[in-house]
Amino acid sequence: MAASEMTICNLALGKIGARRIIALDEESNEARACRLHYAETRDEVLRSHRWNFAIKRETLTTVATLPAFGWKAGYALPMDCLRVFEVNGWDYSRRESVWEIEGRFVMINEEPVDIRYIARIEDSNLFDAIFVEAFATKLASKVAMPIQGSVQISGEMLGQYEKLVGGKARRTDAFEGRPGRRPAWAGSDLVRSRFQSMPAWWG
Predict the structure, then answer these.
(1) Cis bond before residue 112 (omega within 30° of 0)
(2) Most exposed: 27, 74, 133, 155, by fewest CB within 10 Å?
(3) pLDDT for residue 95
(4) Between residues 183 and 156, which one has the greater pLDDT?
(5) What would the pLDDT profile of 170-183 be if each residue is shown by its tens digit?
(6) CB of 16 within 8 A of CB of 77?
(7) 65 with 71: CB under 8 angstroms?
(8) For the chain, which residues make up each domain, given as ranges?
């Protein structure tokens, strides 16, 4: 069942033992706190993990800036991009200076540029169940202080959130994805002969 913005807010309020709201635009401390923190918290949680429903692909072909040094060109990121994690098949954790992000640009020496990224998803109907739970828990950690005045509850909610994102979300997505692409030359005997210490993923 899809979760509305108000449903997510009420889940968060329920976690801290606060009164639930009837409408997001009502004039109550609970509604005001939820309105204040909703969007920023949504984006924080989206950025924190490679949620399958938020992954997008795009090919960048227009040079947006010419760096003064270091890189040949910079390509502007899509407006809805929150975090880039792969460029031309190179995962961020394995890129080895093949590309980098500066401001709202991908700096790189290649063209065209194929990226995979986490997008800003505002339609709550697209959220999956684990994301809703993580989002509501993180939101609860934000609104606990202004509503309940409790540092303890805020800390407890943050701890629960970190367990959700670090455990359940990653285990679930591991069964729904596939290993990252290796460069075509990764298995080359010539490359192997030149480098004595190779990353484990070259195996």
Answers:
(1) yes
(2) 27
(3) 63
(4) 156
(5) 655 544 445 444 44
(6) no
(7) no
(8) 5-49+128-174, 54-121
Q: How far apart are CA 112 and CA 127, in angstroms?
A: 31
Q: Cα–Cα distance between 173 and 153 in angstroms, integer?
A: 29
Among residues 124, 106, 103, the alpha carbon closest in space to that of 115 is found at 106
Amino acid at the residue 157? M
Please report which helix (H) or strand (E) contains residue 153, including its range.
Answer: helix 151-163
Pairing of strands 105-108, 99-102: antiparallel
Please, what is the angle between helix 29-47 and helix 5-15, to 10°?
Answer: 100
Residues paired with residue 75 on neighbouring β-strands, in sequence order = 63, 106
- Decide if 124 contacts 24 (C-beta within 8 A): no
Provide the mean pLDDT of the chain. Answer: 85
Compute the radius of gyration of the chain from its Cα atoms: 21
Distant-in-sequence, close-in-space partners of 155: CB < 8 Å, separation ≥ 6: 141
DSSP 6: H
